[in-house]
Amino acid sequence: MTTDTTTAQRKSLRLIIKSFASNLEDLRDFVSLLAPVLKQREDSLLKENAHFLAPLLMSMDVIDPIAFKIAEPARKKLQEQFGSVEIERHEKPDADGKAKKGRVSFTVKIDNKETAKSFSSALERMQKGQVHTGLLYRSALISLVSAAEWYVSELLHTYYERFPDAAGLSEKSFSLEDLRRLKTIDEATAYLVDSKVESVLRGSFEDWIEFLASKPKLSMSYVENEMASISEVFQRRHVVIHNGGIVNRIYMSKVAEATRAGLELGKPIEVTREYLDKAISIFERNFILVGAELWKKLEPENDERASELIAMAFKQLSSERWSIGEALSYFVSKDTRASERSKMIGKINYWQSLKWQDRFEQVRSEVKAEDMTAKERIYQLAKHALLDEEALFARLLNQMLKANELPLDDAQTWPLFRKLRSTKAVEEILSAYAPLPTPAPIAAVQHSQAEPSGDVTKTYPLITKIGKSRKRITRRKTR
Questions:
Q1: CA within 20 to 30 Å of 82's CA: 130, 152, 371, 384, which one?
Q2: What angle do CA 117, 244, 131 make, to 5 degrees?
Q3: How far, rounded to the nearest angstrom, does the alpha carbon of residue 366 sit from its chain's CA centroid?
Q4: Domain end residue (candidates: 99, 130, 161)
């Protein structure tokens, strides 16, 4: 057996974390793109089949006459159109045989065969439209869990690359057939690491956390409060894949009662848009922090960690995903290996995430006590914004814009300033510094179908990149 020096290393922890975050963002975009299309199709089907679905409206009047009350003249007109339509209401009992409030079914009996056929066909078309939407959300849930599995696999491989003895290399013995097949020491090492990673991934989410706590010795205190919710997502995915979306005893036994409220054995389990959005946020919040903590453990002096997490937090705050911004910013603010500047930025972003979640009173006294007088003016401006000190904020904002200490685009877009931007004083200041529109050339007026002017590169500083020595991030915009 020889040593293979050509084996490529895996991605850096920075790229692994960024890839995971990008995968979840792509998943959000995918759902946001398709869901409205499917909803529009459902609405179109409803309009096209509204006439034939009238018996359904009549049945809803029987089930809940308060919410779906049909006036008597309208009822008579419907009966004239559809003939004899009989609606039977059925109370659905619980497992103990007692009727449960809100659980009812109904039977629609239509004498006219043509009417019955049209009603049945219209109902089938409507149900198919709803199935497509449900399929989108279930597929997204499966993709979410798969993304988490890939991510944890990458983290574990990275850990074992740094600490190969943790995979038991010194204890493992290979058969002669193994040696012939593997050929090099590096191949044998990769085989053993892959086996170890696969063994961990075959376990439950709780097993993953136990492994990460015992081997890399991560604290993961941030996961504790959401262990039950994360575990439920994994179990719901298992039900969707392995049991046709029907709640089974495995799900009922492994999921905490508080996280499965309203679900019953043998009943379908839904994946709604609201549930999916919440699940993606929980996964993003916790799994990114797991990666960040492992990064801190393996590369404590790497100064990219804080800047990367700050950039991610800013993106989440700009998208008004406050809880994710809160978690990432808090981690940075408490990272003892991060620079003082990074910790301060993390603290400011953490404070504002609480402010937009109506929890600012938890930190108001801390914000007031923070001395910004010796710091750059952007930090002072941030403090005024957090405390809603409109006059002080407006005066300092005007001074900074005049001195070119703060780009106008940042003042117009930073989420930190979102509340004070709507005040009259700040609106007037921003308007005063806004560039005048450039008159369109005559040729452009004559040729309204001319091609757009193309991309322009614009320097875009985040709140994460403030101060004279700040690095600038560039992004391309199409005008």
A1: 130
A2: 40
A3: 29
A4: 130
Residue 47: which H helix or E strand, with range? helix 13-49
Confidence at residue 129, expressed as pLDDT on a 0 to 100 scale: 60
Instruction: Provide the CA 433 distance to its chain's centre, in angstroms.
Output: 36
**473-478 and 455-460 beta bridge pairing:** antiparallel
Encode pLDDT of 393-442 as tens digits.
Answer: 999 999 999 999 999 999 999 999 999 999 999 999 999 999 877 666 65
Contacts of 23 (CB under 8 A, 6+ apart): 147, 150, 151
Rounded to whole angstroms, the Cα distance separating 42 from 132 reads 9
pLDDT band at residue 195, thresholds of 50, 70 and 90? confident
- Residues 468 and 455 sit within 8 Å (Cβ to Cβ): no
Same domain, 111 and 153: no
The pLDDT value recorded for residue 191 is 74
Q: 282 and 199 share a domain?
A: yes
Is 333 domain-assigned? Answer: no
Highest mean pLDDT among 67-71, 397-401, 463-467: 397-401
Residues 264-296: tens digit of each pLDDT: 999 999 999 999 999 999 999 999 999 999 999
Domain end call among 130, 157, 189: 130
Q: Cα(32)–Cα(222) distance, rounded to whole angstroms?
A: 28
- What share of the chain in percent tops pLDDT 70? 68
258 with 350, same domain: the answer is no
* Crossing angle of helices 340-355 and 377-386, rounded to 10°: 20
> Do residues 294 and 148 both lie within one domain?
yes
185/258 same-domain check: yes
SS3 at position 347: helix
